[in-house]
Amino acid sequence: xxxxxxxxxxxxxxxxxxxxxxxxxxxxxxxxxxxxxxxxxxxxxxxxxxxxxxxxxxxxxxxxxxxxxxxxxxxxxxxxxxxxxxxxxxxxxxxxxxxxxxxxxxxxxxxxxxxxxxxxxxxxxxxxxxxxxxxxxxxxxxxxxxxxxxxxxxxxxxxxxxxxxxxxxxxxxxxxxxxxxxxxxxxxxxxxxxxxxxxxxxxxxxxxxxxxxxxxxxxxxxxxxxxxxxxxxxxxxxxxxxxxxxxxxxxxxxxxxxxxxxxxxxxxxxxxxxxxxxxxxxxxxxxxxxxxxxxxxxxxxxxxxxxxxxxxxxxxxxxxxxxxxxxxxxxxxxxxxxxxxxxxxxxxxxxxxxxxxxxxxxxxxxxxxxxxxxxxxxxxxxxxxxxxxxxxxxxxxxxxxxxxxxxxxxxxxxxxxxxxxxxxxxxxxxxxxxxxxx
Length: 438
Fold this sequence. Notes:
By secondary structure, the chain is an alpha/beta fold. It has two domains: about 5-135 and about 160-170, Rossmann fold (3-Layer(aba) Sandwich), CATH 3.40.50; about 180-435, CNF1/YfiH-like putative cysteine hydrolases. The protein has helices at about 15-35, 55-65, 85-95, 110-120, 155-170, 225-240, 305-310, 315-325, 350-360, 375-385, 420-425, and strands at about 5-10, 40-45, 75-80, 100-105, 125-130, 180-185, 195-200, 245-250, 255-260, 270-275, 280-285, 290-295, 300-305, 335, 365, 375, 395, 430-435. The protein is elongated.
C-alpha cells in the first residue's frame, strides 16, 4: 500500500500557472477521495526561481491547495532551486516518518530523469511507482501496480549532469554532530604512514542510527551511495589521502586477502600493499578494523575482523600475505586494533562461544550461560602472538596508558561510534585506513 505521494511540478513553466493549479487541484482531489482508507503523506515539489522566496511559491499554489482539509496536516510544499535539493528534502521527511512506499505523480517527460535522481538518492529500501500527472482520475491509480513503465536510457551526458548536480548539492550541506574526528595510533610512525580510525562525526548522514559520517551503503540501509561518497570525500580532505586511490575490503566475514596489483578476489576481508599513495581501508561497526604497518619493508595492510573472521584467522592471514609478498619480517610488523565491540557488551550463542573458549578461556565470560560475553580483541591478540607478532607491537584495549587508547567499545559510546549490536539493522559504519606516504 502506498505510504506517501510525491507530486512533481518542478519543470512546469511559470507562464502556465492556471494549468498547474488545475492539475494540482484535480490530483489532490483524487488523493483526498482515497485518504479515508488510509492517511497519505503528500509532497508537492516545485521550483524556487532565482531571487524568489519559498513563501511566494506557496502562495502561487494556494488556490489549488485550499479546501483539502483532510490532507492539510499531511500535505507539504517543497520548493528548491534544483531537483536534487527538493528530492533530498522530501527524502528527509520520508525517513523521519519511516516511509518507504512512494507513488510519484509527474509529467511523462520527467519520468526517466526522476528515476536517475532516485537511483542516486535512494536505496533498495524504498519502492517507487510512477504515474503520469495528466491521467490521475481514480482511486485505483493510487495502488501499487504490477505493471512497470518500460525504462528508457538517458544519454550519458544527461546522467553526468544529474550526478554533478547531486554532488554539488551534497557538498553544500553542513557537517552534522561536530567536526570530523580521526583517531590515530602512536604505534604507527607518521613519517612513513598515513593512517587513522574514523568516528561518527563530521558527515552529512542525518538518519539517527547513521548520523553523521556513515561510510557504507547497502540495499538494506537508507543511506545512498551518493551520501557515503560525500562523507568519504570529506574524510579524504581531512586526512589527506587521494580518493582516487582508495580501496576498501569487500567483506565476506572470512579470511581471504587481496594483494594490491594482483587479481582481485570477489570477496576478501584483508588487503595489503607496498605501493605508495594507495589507501587501504577496513570497515567496522562492532567488528574490528585492524591496521598493519611494516616501517622496515614499507608495506601495510588492513583487515576486517568480526567474530567469524577472528576465528578464521583473518589478521594472521593478512600478516602472512605481507611476509610472503613483500618479504616482511614478523618482528617488524605493527598491528593496531581499532574501535570495536568490547567484552563488556558483546554476546554470542554458547555454541559459537565454545570456539573462543578453545583459543583461551579468558576470551569468554559466563561461559555456562546461553549467551556468554566474548572478547574478540583478546582472541585476535592471542592468535597474532601465536603467529609470531611481538606483544609490544600490538596495540589494543590492553595498553596500560589509557590516554593512548583508541580501541574503544563501539557499543558503549553512541556519541562517538556506530554499533550494529546496539543500533540494529540500519546501522552506520566507521573505517580504519592506512597508506604509505609518497
